[in-house]
Amino acid sequence: MSIKAETRYANSPQEVKTWTTAQTREALLIEQLFEADDVRLVYSHYDRFITGGIMPVSKAIQLEPVDQLKASYFLERRELGIINVGGAGTVKVDGEAFEIDFKEALYIGQGKQELIFSSKEPGKPARFYLNSTPAHTNYPTRRITKKEAEIVTLGALETANHRTINKLIVNSVLPTCQLQMGMTELKPGSVWNTMPAHTHDRRMEVYFYFEVPQGQSVSHFWGQPQETRHIWMQNEQAVISPPWSIHAGAGTSNYTFIWGMAGENLDYGDMDGCPITELR
Prior knowledge:
Pathway: Glycan metabolism; pectin degradation; 2-dehydro-3-deoxy-D-gluconate from pectin: step 4/5. This protein is mainly β.
């Protein structure tokens, strides 16, 4: 087993005006999160947000601290959110086992020391998608199923954005320090998410796109509302969204994405909207 951790730095709106496509992808796109029996992590200087993936195949994997944390264990000063996007798996938290099935979540509070990930069937490995943020206190570890989520349906087929939002790790479901996570599923025939576009300057966000059919792609839109850019993304890739940036996607097919947020507050509705007709 190996742990691959990289660092991404924060950038200003003025700086990104000169970026090429390659520079944009290098700074914001996370192309590979899952590799057999490995841990892959990206540490962002936007709100010290960590995005990661663990796929245990032939053995259980323990999440160890990385150099970026300068900590004796991973959650010494952090909290962790997990959503399984693969086969059934188990996460042991200081010896207590939590079974996490497809599209189920687990929240682990600050201070837990031993984190061990395993798959129920090696032929159908779990794919644990991780988000982690700094934490100031310990909240209880809890598994969250879709039945326990706060579920909202928005949009319409006529506007190509009919979607179900599953709020899994949010303050209306359980207490956290700052991490918020959920999963949005687009209905067949819909390709747009998160419209109308908005920013929330008090929080950053990371999007993870999955269930993108083979041969299809998603164009992720980002940038200031009056100066937008795009990044073409494939299945099981993630993208970092700065606080000053819009974040929306349009796919060549319907898809699912996980959103994770961190920052100033826990108010899901804290958004600065931009009318669709004013986007540039």
